[in-house]
Amino acid sequence: MAAAIKLREDPDGSQLCALMKRSRQGGQKRRHLTPAVIYDGGKCSDAVRTAGETLKINRGWMIRFNAKGPGGLIDRNAPSPERKLNDGQRAALAAKVEASPILTGLGVVRWRRFDLAQWIWEEFAVSVEESTVGRELRRVGLVKRSARPHHYAQDPETLEAFKNLRRNSKRDSRQVTGWY
């Protein structure tokens, strides 16, 4: 069985209730409610029942509360993972993409994320996924562009002749008298 945790003395139950009322996040309110119940003379089991969590979770909240005060019960964001490429590697990747793939002598016609991931491995010994390559390229301001397909028969003169043909046929159909 774990040892009892003695709560810090600086805030009291009324101060925690005031913090709880100001908060707009439900989880934060529950975390402030637990020490408030204990400060007002309740047992730890009463605080656990009031918050609707397990004893182990409430114990973690009380440890955070003792270490950082009421600010320790505020919602925290998870730390973001470290980036795979540093600024210098990202700049080298952007320069590589800006250079024509044909001129580099790799035998590719256009850059694919797969090819760039392979180049990053050969150049920097950093293994990255294709999606990571796309994110890193967007981070330096490069976007994926692809040409729209163009039908071989879409000649502007042919299209204009077709439009004129349709206009004339509609005009002719309006001139025809109906069946009586």
How would you sum up this structure, described in words?
The protein is mostly helical and 180 residues long. Helices cover 56% and strands 0% of the residues. The protein is built from eight helices and no strands. It has helices spanning 13-22, 26-39, 44-51, 55-68, 87-98, 113-124, 130-139, 156-175. The longest helix is centred in the last third of the chain and has 20 residues, at 156-175. The chain is elongated and about 90 Å long.
How would you spell out the order of helices and strands? Answer: HHHHHHHH
Discrete helix count: 8
**Rg, alpha carbons:** 34 Å
Structural class: mainly alpha
Main sheet: strands, sense, barrel = none
Which regions contain 5 or more consecutive residues with pLDDT less than 50? 176-180
The overall strand count is 0
Mean pLDDT score: 77
**Percent range for β-strand residues:** under 5%
How does the overall form come out from the CA principal axes?
Answer: elongated
**Straight-line distance between termini:** 101 Å
Helix fraction? 55-70%
